[in-house]
Amino acid sequence: MGDLTLSNVTKSFGATQVIKGVDLEVNDGEFCVFVGPSGCGKSTLLRMVAGLEDVTSGDVRIDGERINDLAPAKREIAMVFQSYALYPHLTVRDNMGLALKQAGTPKAEIAAATEKAAAMLDLGPLMARRPSELSGGQRQRVAIGRAIVRTPKLFLFDEPLSNLDAALRVATRIEIARLHRELGATMIYVTHDQVEAMTLADKIVVLRAGRVEQVGRPMDIYNDPDNTFVAGFIGSPQMNFLKSGLLGLRSDRLGIRPEHLEISTSAGQIEGRVSHVEKLGGETLTYVRTPDHELLTVRQFGEHDHPVEQAVWLTPDQSRAFHFDAEGQRLRA
Ligand SMILES: Nc1ncnc2c1ncn2[C@@H]1O[C@H](COP(=O)(O)OP(=O)(O)OP(=O)(O)O)[C@@H](O)[C@H]1O
What we know:
Helix 3 (107-121) crosses helix 4. The chain has helices at residues 42-50, 92-102, 107-121, 136-148, 166-183, 194-200, 218-223, 228-233, and strands spanning 4-13, 16-26, 31-35, 57-62, 65-66, 77-80, 154-158, 186-191, 203-208, 211-216, 240-243, 253-256, 261-264, 270-279, 283-289, 296-301, 311-316, 322-324, 330-331. The protein is globular and about 75 Å long. Strands 6-7-8-3-9-10 form a 6-stranded mixed sheet, with helices on both faces. It has a 5-stranded antiparallel sheet with strand order 13-17-14-15-16, with no helix packed on it. It has a 4-stranded antiparallel sheet with strand order 2-1-4-5, covered by helices on one side. A hairpin with a 6-residue loop joins strand 15 (283-289) and strand 16 (296-301). The protein is 26% helix and 32% strand. The protein is of the alpha+beta class. It has 2 domains: 4-231, Rossmann fold; 238-331, CATH 2.40.50.140.
């Protein structure tokens, strides 16, 4: 089992409160991603679950048991960090088996657990090497392997992919998703990368300045955001926000994703000029400067030519628009 419950959890460093009352349930077997901008408190929250930071107030429970005062080693939690934190003088095999050895596990059991994890992560041929003889991606797989051998109740990942290059990040992301499926374990994963959040999570927790802004399944958060912060944070490129008054609408702000903004050179609702074009191969992003809005982004599939400074018209697809009040809260029909 590996249910995690946070009840009104706060954290202060000196006089500064950085976690401001977080309530959260992560169910057994769930892949939960904490996402949010730099400094919003993702790592602090994770470190409190791991026992690496004290909880200032509130309760942290695993399977119903309050663990606020339980030593990290007793929590049955394994954590994978951005810096792989491997012992340089130990082989891959010994790095992976170390925690079991320290716990006094019989040698044969350590060997079996290590071999099993190595097979899952395709580390077999590398077992005799030392960390300095591995690539960054291989080191991160060893760090993940070290977490797996302990069969913990909870896996915690703190931005594990951020040291890897783009291609390796995608490959390792897929690997982590597969591991989650195979192990069926509860995983909590911190990232500021909303693509990782969207692709890995069963449940996304969007954080801002120490508070939870919204919790939900990825596509529910994407399709039904509660406020402009969540709407702007989840989705790449970012959602456009328009002043609805100018469009004759009653809400204060209208949110429209770049793929739901039509661009035309002849007619439309919002006049503007092309500021910049990015051709990404499969799609084209056109940035349009308008007198009353910030730069608006239009996403079109395929290749499109819009000369810089060309006069264009934009029209939001009203059926795909989101409406928000002056405070940025969503107005649902
Ligand atoms: N030991 C500490 N002492 C004082 N302030 C801290 C300490 N650790 C974190 N903070 C502050 O707490 C806030 C949350 O930090 P945290 O590292 O949890 O954010 P984060 O969302 O993980 O950010 P990032 O994505 O940049 O890693 C920040 O304002 C940070 O400066």
